[in-house]
Design goal:
Rossmann fold; 8 helices; 7-stranded parallel sheet; 274 residues; alpha/beta
Length: 274
C-alpha cells in the first residue's frame, strides 16, 4: 500500500489505466458512477438497454474514455458481445459495477401490491433483472477478471434488502387507493448479499474482490409527502443526493479497499440503525 501524502492518496484511490463497466449506466445513479469513475482516470463502458439519455449525460458519453454498449443484462449472449467489444477496445475490465435494476414506483389501487394477490409475472420481472442480471454479469465479466489480473465487483443493494419497508412511508392522505411496497424488490436486494458472499469466497484466490454497497433512498423529485415521510425515518433527516454514493464506488473500485471482500457497506443516513 502506498504511503500517505498527495501522491500516495492519488495512487491509492486513482484508477488510471483501468477499465470499468457500469451496468445500468444510463440510470439515475449509474450516470453518477460513470462520471465518477471516468474522473478518477478509468475508461468506462456503459452496459444498458436504454438508448435515450438526459441531455447532460449525452455530453459525458461523447467525451473521452466513455463507451456505450446496448446490453440486456438478462441475456448472457448480449453481455458476452458487449464484453468482447470492450475487451477489444480497451482490454479486460478490472471493475464491474452491477447497478442495473428495476423498482416499482408507487401506483395506488384497490389491491395496492398486496402480498396475497401479488402477481407472479411482476415477481419474475424484478428478479430477472435485479438478481439474474447481477448473476449473469458477474459470471461473464467476473470470469474474465479471474482469468486476468483480477478486479473489483461492486454489487448495488438497498436498505430494503436489510430491513422490511416501512409501509407508512407510502401512505397518501389524498389517495383513494393503496400502495404497498411489494416483496419482489426486497427479495431481489436481499439476494444480492448472498451473491456477494458466495463470489467473494469463490474468487478470493483469483484476486477478484466482491462487495456490496447498500444505499438509502435518493431524492429524485418525489412528491413532498413521500420525502417528508421517508426523511422522518432517517436520523440525518433527509434523503441522499444522487452524488453522495460516488465516494463508496471509488473506494471499492480502487486499491484503497484492497483487503476488503465479501463486505456490505451500508450508506443510508442511519435509516437501518432505528
Amino acid at each position: 500500500m502506498p504511503a500517505l501524502g498527495k501522491d500516495g492518496l492519488k495512487e491509492m484511490f486513482g484508477l488510471e489505466g483501468r477499465v470499468a463497466i457500469v451496468t445500468g449506466g444510463a440510470g439515475l445513479l449509474g450516470r453518477e458512477f460513470v462520471k465518477a469513475l471516468r474522473d478518477a482516470g478509468a475508461k468506462v463502458a456503459v452496459f444498458d438497454i436504454q438508448t435515450k439519455y438526459p441531455q447532460e449525460f449525452e455530453k459525458v458519453l461523447l467525451g473521452k474514455n466513455v463507451a456505450v454498449y446496448k446490453t440486456d443484462v438478462t441475456d448472457k449472449k448480449s453481455i458476452q458481445r458487449a464484453l468482447k467489444a470492450i475487451s477489444k477496445k480497451w482490454g479486460t475490465p478490472q471493475i464491474l459495477v452491477n447497478a442495473a435494476a428495476i423498482d416499482i414506483p408507487p401506483k395506488y389501487s384497490k389491491k395496492g401490491n398486496l402480498f396475497e394477490t401479488y402477481p407472479e409475472e411482476s415477481l419474475e420481472k424484478i428478479m430477472d433483472v435485479n438478481v439474474k442480471g447481477t448473476f449473469l454479469c458477474s459470471q461473464t465479466i467476473g470470469a474474465a477478471m479471474a482469468k486476468g489480473k483480477g478486479g473489483s465487483i461492486i454489487n448495488i443493494s438497498s436498505v430494503y434488502g436489510e430491513v422490511s419497508p416501512d409501509q407508512r412511508i407510502y401512505v397518501r392522505k389524498k389517495e383513494k387507493g393503496t400502495f404497498i411496497k411489494p416483496i419482489s424488490y426486497c427479495m431481489s436486494k436481499g439476494a444480492i448479499h448472498s451473491i456477494t458472499k458466495y463470489l467473494a469466497t469463490y474468487w478470493a484466490k483469483k484476486n477478484v474482490r466482491v462487495n456490496t454497497v447498500t444505499f438509502g433512498g435518493v431524492f429524485s423529485d418525489q412528491d413532498k409527502e413521500f420525502v417528508k415521510n421517508y426523511s422522518s425515518r432517517v436520523p440525518m433527516g433527509r434523503m441522499a443526493r444522487r452524488d453522495e454514493y460516488n465516494g463508496a464506488i471509488l473506494f471499492l473500485a480502487s486499491d484503497a479497499s484492497s483487503y476488503m471482500t465479501g463486505a456490505n457497506l451500508v450508506i443510508d443516513g442511519g435509516y437501518t440503525t432505528w
